[in-house]
Amino acid sequence: MKPRVAILISGRGSNMAALIEAAAEDGFPAEIAVVISNVATAGGLAIAERSGIATVVIESKPFGKDRAGFEAKLQAELDARGIELICLGGFMRLFTAEFAQHWYGRMLNIHPSLLPSFPGLDPHGQALRAGVKISGATVHFVTPDTDAGPIIMQGAVPVQDDDTPDTLAARVLAVEHRIYPEALRLLAAGLLRFDGDLCRSATQSAPERTLIVPAAH
Ligand code: GAR
Q1: 176: Cβ below 6 Å to ligand 1?
Q2: Does the CB atom of residue 89 touch ligand 1 within 6 A?
Q3: What is the pLDDT of residues 76-110, one digit of tens each?
Q4: What is the CATH number of domain 1-103?
Q5: CATH of domain 109-203
Q6: Atom 7 in ligand 1: which residue has the minimum CA distance?
Q7: Is the pTM of this model over 0.70?
Q8: For 2-22, how does the pLDDT look when each residue is reduced to its tens digit (9 = 90+)?
Q9: CA 186 to CA 121: how far, in whole Å?
Q10: Which of 8, 9, 14 to mutate to test the pocket of ligand 1 (most atoms within 8 A of CB)?
Q11: Which helix (H) or strand (E) holds 8?
Q12: Measured between alpha carbons, how far is 153 from 86 in angstroms, rounded to an integer?
């Protein structure tokens, strides 16, 4: 049996769509069982419905600062649907340490920077202000700290001198859509293992794929 995955979203859901598309392919080792949004107007809900994926809205706003109350409702939904893995796809709500610990090793997040650089809000603005020449995206296990946790996979893109946060975000997003399904595939196929606080993968990138920007001759 393939592990059943819940994707949690708050907005547009383009990473969600990439995961749904990848999981629809023959041989993908996980099944997207439900998309849950904490925002009723999230654009991703319609995309999921068009793909035939069950959708659920659990609005977090009425819970205010009562994170545990929101999470109890979320956990009940996850239990009812037999969910084994969670993918956060632009889910803009922090979890309690208890919830993060309960799902440790089974909950993934994607963040649009090369963590541990530029966690939190406005990662692309942070990258541009720091003047980095390479940025990218990171898929990692969720821990109680925001945008932290063992790194599973990263993808890099060049930063150009005339980039704005929007142009950089678009370049990084294309990489996000490639690495998130791959990271889920590795996890669901049992190809990841923990080494202390680090995540190791049974697959290795070829050394010739090293990315140096600007190009070094
Ligand atoms: C993505 O860029 C994702 O990496 C980011 O929100 C965007 C959601 O877009 N997540 C974070 O910043 C988490 N700290 P999407 O709804 O189109 O997938």
Answers
A1: yes
A2: yes
A3: 999 999 999 999 999 999 999 999 999 999 999 99
A4: 3.40.50.170
A5: 3.40.50.170
A6: 90
A7: yes
A8: 999 999 999 999 999 999 999
A9: 28
A10: 14
A11: strand 4-9
A12: 16
